[in-house]
Amino acid sequence: MDCEFTGLHRGTTLISIGCVADDGRTFYAECSDFDVSQVDPWVQENVLRNLTLMPKMIGKPLLPRMHVNYGHVDCEIWGSKRFVGSELAHWLSRYDNVEMWSDCLAYDWTLFNDLYGHAFKIPSNVFYIPFDLCTLFKLKGIDPDVCREEFAGMNGQRHHALWDAKVIKACYEKAIRWDKSINL
To answer: Cα(71)–Cα(94) distance, rounded to whole angstroms?
Structure first.
């Protein structure tokens, strides 16, 4: 899971969220109701310019759903935070037990919980303890500050929540098999 948001501060708001399941299915959403007053030049340049759904919706009637294909791989949502949370819960419902892995997850997990109004209201199939890629790296003897894309052997658009979620998944899969004595 990866989230993009309006800044590194307590009152930050969710801009986008991306999830990739073990089976490769993806979920991507952009929120129509993030706090634009919190957008600074860095967020404008590095996050907003990478959005793929919102630019298509500007000036059009508010249609909360762009593309949903629950029977196959992809789910793309554009709408309010409440709508995104509802659709994400529906997407997650196909899985019995969900572990959420993220990178530097403090903000991501808080914003995930905020989709449901409270940590006690997250979907019941989602394990209440999130897991952090940085901690896994540290435990495996991998520099937690390593460039994620280089480590994963991937090249793409950073600060796009779905792309970053794919990179996190690839890093997790490589790190979980990592043997420090072999990979020095």
So the answer is: 10
